[in-house]
Amino acid sequence: MSYSIFARGATKEQVMEKISAELEKIVVAQPIHSVDRWKAYETATEFLAMVPNETGDKEFYVSVSGSLSWSEWNVVTSASVNVNASLVAKEKA
Predict the structure, then answer these.
(1) Buried b / exposed e along 59-71 (16+ C-beta atoms within 10 A)
(2) DSSP secondary structure code for residue 73 in this structure
């Protein structure tokens, strides 16, 4: 099962709160992702930490996509996560 989510915000905290909420929705829809949900969140947090805190006229953006495969005995046989953290132009209102 796989997923792809993203969030934007004025602060890193706002972005990670949104990412956390989206990951929770993924777990509800695809319970197998309860095994990788926190690792995906932690990875996104670590990547966002590398982005400067000074945003100027930009905002924070994080995207996370992940995938799990498992055997007929519900044993995870492969796992992947992709994270992007960056500063982007603010969305026009």
Answers:
(1) bbbbbbebebeee
(2) T
pLDDT tens digits, 45-84: 999 999 999 888 899 999 999 999 988 887 899 999 999 9
26/3 Cα distance (integer angstroms): 7
Write out pLDDT tens, residues 9-36. 999 999 999 999 999 999 999 999 999 9
CA of residue 75 relative to chain centroid, distance:
23
Is pTM beyond 0.90 here?
yes
Q: Reduced to 3 DSSP states, what percent helix, strand and coil does the chain have, rounded to the nearest 5?
A: 40, 40, 25
Angle between helix axes 37-49 and 12-29 (nearest 10 degrees) is 160
Residue 74 and residue 38 in contact, taking contact as beta carbons nearer than 8 Å: no
Start-to-end CA distance of the chain, whole Å, equals 35
